[in-house]
Q: What sequence folds into this?
């Protein structure tokens, strides 16, 4: 199997021979600013503007070789940290109906939009302004053309890995088209975007054509300086396509075999980050297995069960503190709340908090309800209140009630 991490690095070096050194320099510049942001968020401030600057800085560092643009964005990020009143950056923008006013990249505004729409849909509140910023994908033909334009990266030619933009927009489109509450919300409340049956059918066809029949996975394609086009097995992109379609996809045995085969590879082409498991990826894997469990044979289920047991043990013994906290990893998560959200989501997905027997094993977990309450108390003590922390708390309350 192709080592896509090495391939991407090689292609960036073909574009800029000094790429590794420059990337290391800017990573060192960014790291202390991330630490300051995390410290500010831990005091209860949302730091929404700084968070947006940080997210785009990380994208520029990992998916681009435009060093001048990264230098400018880091300067904006650093300056923003002196202002603790940043709630304005969470509001919808009047001029085009977007969210994420500190983002320059359009796809990041799409990502911010789908988060905002989920929150608005929960409350049954219409957006204040039409979503005209979605014009690049507002019509079926334009949507297909945009996706086709992002599907294949030519890093050696332009220094741009399109994988993250492709993933963000396809995930948003999958929520809009297949998540019933979001689809209904768009049709009832959103102006400036016609989410018709024809639009959904066009997107579904594009997704079906994108699935790789060799791996069963979805992922970015890479054209190389040697003339090849290689298709990556991307855990995150595959998870979104399977999850939002509620498991109604083809090639389930192939999907399981690929998922099991990439266990020890690096994200996004495997489960691990910096050589360790990660609760975000663990959650993705567990949900993929859950949605396709009935579509594979007993031998495959047995192999998947063994690996779920491994990552559950890692979660409980390596990713958590004794008082019910989750260890943050700023090289992967964008906030402390994210670390809690994905840790809670993984434990909830594998049925650890409940009294019913989970899909993948033959017993419930006696310590689960106690741990559920311990995590709640820890989150309240740390005063975590960003969107992802609140979503984590909702899952905990659903699982074991409000522990006070």
A:
């Amino acid at each position: 199997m192709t080592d896509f991490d090495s391939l991407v690095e090689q292609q960036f070096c073909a574009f800029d021979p000094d790429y590794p050194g420059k990337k290391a320099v800017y990573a060192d510049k960014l790291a202390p600013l991330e630490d300051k942001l995390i410290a500010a968020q831990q005091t209860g401030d949302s730091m929404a503007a700084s968070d947006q600057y940080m997210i785009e800085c990380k994208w520029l560092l990992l998916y681009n070789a435009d060093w001048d643009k990264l230098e400018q964005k880091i300067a904006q990020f650093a300056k923003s940290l002196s202002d603790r009143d940043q709630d304005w950056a969470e509001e919808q923008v009047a001029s085009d109906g977007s969210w994420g006013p500190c983002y320059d990249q359009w796809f990041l505004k799409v990502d911010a939009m789908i988060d905002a729409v989920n929150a608005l849909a929960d409350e049954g509140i219409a957006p204040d302004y039409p979503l005209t910023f979605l014009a690049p994908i507002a019509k079926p033909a334009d949507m297909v053309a945009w996706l086709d334009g992002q599907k294949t990266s030519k890093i050696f030619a332009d220094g741009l890995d399109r994988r993250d933009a492709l993933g963000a927009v396809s995930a948003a489109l999958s929520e809009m088209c297949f998540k019933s509450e979001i689809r209904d919300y768009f049709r009832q409340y959103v102006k400036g975007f016609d989410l018709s049956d024809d639009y959904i059918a066009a997107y579904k066809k594009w997704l079906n054509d994108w699935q790789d029949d060799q791996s069963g996975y979805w992922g970015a394609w890479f054209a190389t300086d040697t003339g090849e086009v290689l298709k990556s097995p991307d855990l995150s992109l595959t998870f979104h396509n399977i999850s939002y379609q509620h498991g109604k996809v083809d090639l389930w045995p192939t999907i399981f075999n690929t998922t099991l085969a990439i266990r020890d590879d690096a994200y996004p082409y495997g489960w691990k980050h910096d050589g360790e498991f990660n609760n975000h990826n663990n959650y993705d894997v567990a949900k993929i297995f859950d949605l396709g469990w009935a579509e594979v044979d007993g031998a495959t289920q047995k192999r998947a069960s063994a690996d779920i047991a491994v990552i559950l043990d890692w979660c409980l013994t390596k990713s958590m503190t004794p008082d019910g906290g989750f260890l943050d990893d700023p090289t992967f998560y964008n906030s402390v709340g994210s670390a809690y959200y994905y840790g809670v989501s993984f434990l909830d997905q594998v049925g650890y908090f409940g009294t019913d027997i989970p899909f993948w094993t033959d017993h419930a977990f006696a310590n689960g309800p106690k741990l559920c309450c311990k995590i709640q108390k820890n989150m309240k003590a740390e005063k975590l209140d960003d969107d992802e922390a609140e979503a984590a708390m909702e899952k905990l309350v659903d699982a074991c009630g409000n522990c006070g």
Residues 197 and 295 are 28 Å apart (CA to CA).
